């Protein structure tokens, strides 16, 4: 059986369980503590999964990966907005015989102008799940598709042996081993929306199975494929069992 087919079977078997997480879009007034409490996730674990060093620096519109959750929830604000004070209505002036009536004022009120902070915005397109980043930086020596008469399900990136390999997006380690022929030491991460990333030819795997990693966390040290080829990383992005060209999902 070819290595590529075996990898598909592994992905199907490991991905048959329930999704390992979802993405929550941060709204105004929401804090990391409130988000973690609403989803029943440890705050430190949530910060680590999203590579957050300062929990006070969340940005509105930021996508947080919530590990171990299947449905989005409504997160309350950290401080409920205060009700505006009741308007002060002046008492009507008393009229005497010598007092002229006040001129009539038009009852037509101008349309209220919203401040910039409350102006309506048109939501932009939903970013690719996980907002993938490059796991290493180097020259792409094998492109997606056909390479040397063979089908390539991913890309191969030339890097010096021992280069840190980082997670392209937050997710769960569903495989870490060398049991799939042709990939050497291999790591597979599962992300939200049924996405997977594959990291092969590693000299050493650093991430343990069933652990959650944040985007940019070190998961392996790069190595070299068998057959005397130069050191490189084999990298794939899959939607379910279908391999997609990583170039279209990377910055």
Provide a concise account of the structure shown.
This protein has 251 residues and is mainly beta. The protein contains three helices and 14 strands.
Write up what this structure looks like.
With 251 residues, the chain is mainly beta. It contains three helices and 14 strands. It has helices at 3-14, 32-39, 43-49, and strands spanning 21-25, 63-67, 139-142, 145-147, 150-152, 155-158, 164-166, 171-177, 185-190, 195-205, 212-213, 218-222, 232-239, 242-244. The strands form three sheets. Strands 3, 6, 7, 8, 9, 10, 11, 12, 13 and 14 form a ten-stranded antiparallel beta sheet that branches. Strands 1-2 form a two-stranded antiparallel sheet. Strands 4-5 form a two-stranded antiparallel sheet. A hairpin with a 4-residue loop joins strand 9 and strand 10. The radius of gyration is 27 Å and the shape is elongated. It starts with a helix and ends in a 7-residue tail after the last strand. The relative contact order is 0.18.
Distance between the termini: 34 Å
**Rg measurement, Å:** 27 Å
Oligomeric category: single chain
**3D shape:** elongated
Give the helix proportion (percent range).
10-25%
H/E element sequence: HEHHEEEEEEEEEEEEE
Strand content: 25-35%
Q: Mean of the pLDDT scores?
A: 78
Number of strands: 14
For the biggest sheet, the summary is: 10 strands, antiparallel
Structural class per helix/strand content? mainly beta
Low-confidence stretches: 110-130
Tally the helices: what do you get?
A: 3
